[in-house]
Write a structure and sequence with these properties.
Layout (H helix, E strand, L loop, with lengths): L4 H14 L6 H21 L9 E7 L2 E8 L2 H13 L5 E8 L5 H20 L8 E6 L2 E8 L1 H12 L6 E4 L2 E2 L2
Parallel strand pairs: 2-3, 5-6, 5-7
Antiparallel strand pairs: 1-2, 4-5
Length: 177
């Protein structure tokens, strides 16, 4: 079987870049699939945990899952968390769902723009390990996930505080020191 030089180069580069962070290649791959598994479990757990009655954002970093967004009732918030905990590969769930009606498309686009501003600010600051930090914005609240040192977390938080429009910051980091 003949291997493509481009395929081999891509694989080598992927492995090299994977060594740059504290997460294993397996963890990075798992984090690509966990949100889909969690979302499926959540949708299957109750009819009102769907895209029209609830807005649920699922993010995973190193097996740590963030649930953000809105659902109309407290019992649905609890059901979503229970469902997320059942999904394969989930180590920990941070349930930051708000008991509210789902946010509007305008609010979601504002959140997306805010996330882009934050990521740009982090990239511009060479003291922040932006490749190790996942940024999620929901209703102006910024959630930060990653596997970093406390000093790096403090620098990242300071950068986020300098971005206009941020309503609050929730640090969900795993610390390596």
């Amino acid at each position: 079987m003949k291997r493509s030089p481009l395929l081999l180069a891509t694989l080598a580069l992927s492995l090299l870049l994977a060594g740059c962070g504290a997460r294993s290649v397996g963890n990075k791959i798992d984090d690509q699939f966990i949100p889909g598994r969690v979302a499926s479990e959540i949708r299957a757990s109750h009819a009102d945990l769907n895209d029209t009655t609830s807005h649920i954002v699922v993010t995973s970093y190193n097996g740590v899952v963030l649930l953000a967004g809105q659902t109309p009732r407290a019992d649905l918030k609890a059901l979503a968390e229970q469902a997320a905990r059942r999904a394969q590969g989930v180590k920990l769930v941070h349930n930051h769902l708000q008991v509210l009606q789902p946010s509007s498309p305008l609010a979601r686009s504002t959140d997306a723009a805010l996330t882009a501003q934050i990521k740009t600010a982090m990239l511009a600051d060479n003291t922040v390990p932006s490749t190790k930090i996942k940024v999620v914005t929901e209703n102006g609240m910024v959630y930060l996930l990653g596997l970093i040192t406390r000093a790096e977390a403090n620098r990242a938080t300071a950068v986020v505080q300098g971005v206009g429009g941020v309503q609050g910051i929730v640090r969900l980091f795993e610390y390596v020191d």
